[in-house]
Write a structure and sequence with these properties.
By secondary structure, this protein is an alpha+beta fold. Helices cover 53% and strands 20% of the residues. It folds into two domains: 44 residues; 115 residues, 2-Layer Sandwich (Beta-Lactamase), CATH 3.30.450. The protein contains seven helices and five strands. It is elongated, with a radius of gyration of 32 Å. Bound molecules: protoporphyrin IX containing FE. The site of protoporphyrin IX containing FE has 23 residues, from strand 1, helix 6, strand 3 and strand 5.
């Protein structure tokens, strides 16, 4: 009897296999759709990657400046306004010479043009430490990394600098160096 039932069952599974598979697939697709819908609700609640990037650049306390291949400023964030004193409206469209002390311009442009051609910079990871000029003609000490921005074809569109004002540290170090030199210059007391 049991054997007979088993045989009937096997036959019925084989014969109704089509509808069963159909319903199994239907159920699986429905679950997938529901999960996607949940994901959509969760993702939709959260700002997009693009919005996040823009907000972080706009509001970062570091200065973020982007110059095109000719070195014309195309992006100047709030951090750059606070650090250099020029507003974005004043800086965008101008040469970045406005913040480079005259003495350093030749070396800067020589390096800049070379990097625009080669597509390789030394300062992706290490920092470039240089003096800079503010709108009110103060001299500050800055350190920055360079981010080369390339198009989908690999052509360099320009360079961004992520800049920190290290004037306070620089002046502390200078005072310490002067003090050390003074102490080393003194005859030793026994
Ligand atoms: C604000 C004052 C600045 C000064 C005094 C300055 C000065 C210099 C100097 C001396 C170099 C040559 C470094 C070397 O040969 O190792 C250089 C290179 C360079 N600078 Fe500037 N710079 C300034 C701002 C900027 C800014 C705002 C950017 C980008 C937006 C920038 C982009 C570059 C690039 C891409 C190079 C070539 C780096 C390499 O050789 O890999 N600079 N700069």
């Amino acid at each position: 009897m049991v054997d007979a039932l088993r045989t009937v069952f096997r036959i019925s599974v084989r014969t109704v296999g089509g509808p069963q598979i159909f319903f199994a697939r239907f159920f699986r697709d429905a679950v997938k759709l529901y999960l996607r819908f949940l994901l959509y609700l969760v993702m939709d609640d959260f700002p997009s990657h693009q919005w996040l990037c823009q907000t972080i650049v706009d509001q970062a306390p570091v200065a973020i400046i982007f110059g095109d291949r000719q070195g014309i400023v195309r992006l100047w964030n709030a951090g750059a306004e606070a650090m250099f004193g020029w507003t974005a409206a004043e800086a965008v469209g101008k040469s970045m010479d406005m913040i480079i002390p005259e003495k350093h311009r030749a070396r800067h442009w020589e390096g800049y043009d070379r990097v625009m051609e080669s597509g390789v910079t030394k300062y992706g990871r290490s920092v470039l430490a240089v003096p800079a000029l503010t709108k009110d003609a103060r001299r500050i000490s800055i350190e920055f990394n360079v981010v080369l921005v390339k198009d989908d074809g690999g052509r360099v569109l320009g360079a961004a600098a992520i800049i920190q004002d290290v004037t306070a540290r620089w002046e502390r170090d200078k005072a310490l160096r002067a003090r050390l030199a003074e102490l080393e210059g003194k005859p030793k007391q026994i």
